[in-house]
Amino acid sequence: MMLIAQITDFHVGRVIETTAGSIDLYQRLLEVVEHINRLETRPDLVVVTGDISNHGNLEDYARTKIALDSLQMPYLIVPGNHDHRQRVRDVFDEHRYLHNGSEFLHYCIEDQPVRLVALDTLNPGHHTGKLCDERLDWLTQTLAAQPERPTLVFMHHPPAAVQYPYMDAMNCENGDRMAEIISANPQVQAVCCGHVHRDAIVNWANTLLFVSGSSAFSYALHMGEVPDIDPLFEPGICRLFFWSTETGLVSHLTMVGNYPEGITEGVPTPPGGDTEA
Ligand SMILES: [Fe+2]
Ligand SMILES: [Fe+2]
Questions:
Q1: How far is the CA of 26 from the centre of ligand 1 (A)?
Q2: Which ligand neighbours the alpha carbon of 126 most closely?
Q3: Which end of the chain has fewer beta carbons closer than 10 Å to its terminal beta carbon, N or C?
Q4: How many Å lie between the centroid of ligand 2 and the Cα of residue 108?
């Protein structure tokens, strides 16, 4: 069995003015790290799915690394549209999977119960993502190498629309070509993204497409066209993926933050019943 925590879209380096005062997104990162370290069942691994820093500068990567290094389990890095490939490689230097001899920060982790495939959808200078021929070929070959093993795919940009037109306009180019590849590989249990800053699940390419909300800030849900969107400070998101041979894939959401706890004597007996649940 295995438990993976996905966190995403920290945008470290950005300080956002709100109706409740200014919020430094680096503090939100510290909160999600503490949240994961306190989870009752400790994840085996954390996957960070991009937009790690807001401006892609070395200073913000360096302090992000300090925060992530305080996680009590290993973590993997996947780049987003706000990230800079070479600076990610430089700062997270000991993450050897990033030094793959390719221009792209894609990789496959083989030594876990679930095979983990990470895609690089970064298209420098653009907020939209891209899967070019080289990256799609790499995905095809990587999945073909182990067709029997349960696999999770992680990437920043969703390869399909989530009925959020503002964000759908900046999702991943060639998502339809990726869908053909994923459809032909039923070992892919799910494709797990970020970027939208809202949680969504899509039935896509004969698998599940999880779009995880940001661990730092959300955007209000706009299912119709809007000219602009503003940050909203709903609770930060940490999505969990549990996998075992008995259950297959099970996913849960946990919300970063402190919330009131009910003080009760357990679950009440249902009306007409006489046994405790
Ligand atoms: Fe983002
Ligand atoms: Fe993004």
A1: 14
A2: 2
A3: C
A4: 22
Q: Which domains does the chain have, with CATH numbers?
A: 2-255 (3.60.21.10)
Query: Within 13 Å, how many C-alpha atoms sit on residue 24's CB side?
Result: 6
Rounded distance between C-alpha atoms, residue 91 and residue 98, angstroms: 11
Q: For 175-206, what is each residue's pLDDT tens digit?
A: 999 999 999 999 999 999 999 999 999 999 99
Section 40-45 average pLDDT: 98
Nearest ligand to the C-alpha of residue 79?
2
Q: Stretch 263-275: mean pLDDT, rounded? A: 80
The predicted-structure confidence for 127-155, as pLDDT tens digits, reads as follows 999 999 999 999 999 999 999 999 999 99
Residue 267 Cα to ligand 2 midpoint, Å, equals 41
Q: What residues pack around ion ligand 1 (CB closer than 5 A)?
A: 9, 51
Q: Please give the distance, rounded to the nearest whole angstrom, from the Cα atom of residue 162 to the centre of ligand 2.
A: 14
Q: How many residues does the chain have?
A: 277
- C-alpha distance from residue 22 to each of 16, 52, 232 (Å): 5, 20, 12
Tell me how far the alpha carbon of residue 261 lies from the centroid of ligand 2, in angstroms: 34
Question: 195 CA to middle of ligand 1, Å?
Answer: 4
In the block, residue with structure tokens 């430089």: 90
Distance 70 CA to ligand 1 centre (A): 22
Listed in sequence order, the residues at least 6 apart from 2 whose beta carbon sits closer than 8 Å to its beta carbon are 44, 45, 112, 113, 114, 242, 243, 244
Determine the Cα–Cα distance for residues 88 and 79; give it in Å rounded to an integer.
8
Residue among 88, 167, 92, 73 nearest 129 (CA): 167
Lowest-confidence segment of 182-191, 204-213, 246-255, 260-269 by average pLDDT: 260-269
